[in-house]
Amino acid sequence: MRLNLIGPLQVITDDGREHAPNAPKIGRMLAVLALQPREAVPTAVLIQELWGQNPPRSAAKTLQTHVYHARRMFQEERVTAAGRNLLVARAPGYELRVNDDEVDVSSFEQYLRQARWESRSGQLERAAHQVNRALALWRGPVLSGVPVGTVLAGRIARVEELRINALELRIEIESRLGRQRDLLPDLRALVEEFPLHEWFHGQLISALHQAGRRSEALQAYHALYSILQKELGLEPSADLRRLQAEILGSSGREESSGPLHLEAPETSRRHLSPVPSKQPRPTAVACFG
To answer: According to the UniProt record, which residues make up the DNA-binding region (predicted)?
Structure first.
């Protein structure tokens, strides 16, 4: 079986059938549990997610009912092998007994950790393979279409930030492999998706310059300058201003043979905006009973 949280919520049965919980609160409860597999999630945390700061007096009892219906769904839909108890009571709350490879977010994090380790070890091709496996799991915004509460909102923000880390790592690895030119389409898409992420802009500007497209590199710099001025009243970072100066100074001389130096994203980038969303996420609505 598999629980997919990256994109629309999906429960995939052992035989490959797709199922989505009919009751939104059951789906949200399972999502909280799936983001902490094999850990007891306190009842108070689940109640906070489902009812916010002002739960009804019946919240604990209603939560037990949601757990009952989730277990029944697992059985009736034959989600996994008979006799396997996925959802168990464990003080101080409930635990979802699933393996890391049965939750897409856990798989994503595992691939990303492996990619980082192999990148640090100089195994760049293997690192590229692992980070691409991680990004291939991304089917859309985490729990898209699900009206989430404060607990899930915080955990979704963490996973979406990890996606940005994975995108940065992929660009860094491919650049070290000498494939900067091949990244141009992806970099153009990324600066549209994350317009205030200066490191992505810098990589695009550098890749255009190294491809001999000096005027486009300068246009990309001025586009970033305009965005920062309009949105925040800021200028590009010192690294990017130096990059612009290098491009301007390249007129009349041979282009440099390698990519222009920009510090690694974890030390230099100014990620000034949250992960943008093409459509606003539905807000949680209190539902009693």
So the answer is: 1-98
The Cα 238–Cα 169 span in angstroms is 22
Which of 168, 166, 143, 190 shows the shortest CA–CA distance to 32?
Answer: 143
Token look-up 């996973």 returns 159
Question: Looking at the domain covering 2-100, what would its CATH class be?
Answer: mainly alpha
pLDDT tens digits along 92-129: 999 999 999 999 999 999 999 999 999 999 999 999 99
Tell whether the model's pLDDT for residue 284 goes beyond 70.
Answer: no
Q: Provide the whole-model pTM.
A: 0.86
Asked if the peptide bond before residue 92 counts as cis, ω within 30 degrees of 0, the response is: yes
Alpha carbon distance 95, 260 (integer Å): 49
* Domain spans in the chain, listed from the N-terminal domain onward: 2-100, 179-276
Per DSSP, 9 falls in state -
